[in-house]
Amino acid sequence: KNQVEQSPQSLIILEGKNCTLQCNYTVSPFSNLRWYKQDTGRGPVSLTIMTFSENTKSNGRYTATLDADTKQSSLHITASQLSDSASYICVVSDQGSGTYKYIFGTGTRLKVLA
Amino acid sequence: NAGVMQNPRHLVRRRGQEARLRCSPMKGHSHVYWYRQLPEEGLKFMVYLQKENIIDESGMPKERFSAEFPKEGPSILRIQQVVRGDSAAYFCASSLLLRRDSSYEQYFGPGTRLTVT
After folding, report:
1. Which of B7, B32, B43 to probe by mutation at the A interface, max A CB count within 10 Å?
2. Could you tell me where the beta strands, DSSP code E, fall in A3-68?
């Protein structure tokens, strides 16, 4: 069964600190992997997208890594800000059943404190 | 340039009533996707539609749920005879076009939170 698992479930850090969120997936064949940010009460917003041939992708203070061999990805947030408080969701597209069919992880809830 | 619009944002229905959720895709987008997010769970794919066509409804419950995307107007997700288990956030996304072997982008709306009492 295609699955996407994330850890930790929740995380609290102080403003200015860095953090790393993890994602393991079993989706195969794999098409691409995205990280989304979802603010409370809002829809997900894309941060990064990587295909199986990419190892790293940055978007400002967000850097995503991908190891397609071990089926692991991470999202590193540098110099966190209060506005980073949100859920971060790892999403994998399954090439076998159609790249439009996103498979979502349950997310990591990040809380940044002043 | 407006993003994906969903309304209503919050909907309360009694058991047995009907719920209609609307989604207006981004301008120029002709592909619409519906997802459901149960409490403490990730979003789950329900249905993929193009204008006047249902392409993939494999994630949608066989009974009580239906979706349409008419030639004119928004996409509608309809839930008949709602039950408490239908309480969830329903998200709509739209994309510009689909190429099966390439990475395209789905843009998400703010969601409709359905509460069944």
Report:
1. B43
2. 4-7, 10-14, 19-25, 30-38, 45-51, 56-59, 62-67
Question: What are the residues whose beta carbons fall under 8 Å from the beta carbon of A54, sequence distance 6 or more?
Answer: A66
Whether omega for the bond prior to residue B39 falls within 30 degrees of 0, making it cis, is no
Please indicate whether, in this complex, the C-beta atoms of B103 and A42 are within 8 angstroms of each other. Answer: no
B50 touches chain A (CB under 8 A): no
Q: Which chain A residues touch B101 with a CB distance below 8 Å? A: 95, 99
Residue of A nearest to B36 (CA): A104
Calculate the alpha carbon distances from B2 to A4, A13, A22, A47, B24 in Å. Answer: 31, 34, 33, 19, 10
**pLDDT tens string for chain B (117 positions)?**
579 999 999 999 999 999 999 999 999 888 999 999 998 888 999 999 999 999 999 999 999 999 999 999 999 999 999 999 999 999 999 988 665 555 568 899 999 999 999
The conformation of residue B95, written as its DSSP 8-state character, comes to E
| Separation between Cα atoms, residue A63 and residue A59, nearest integer Å | 6
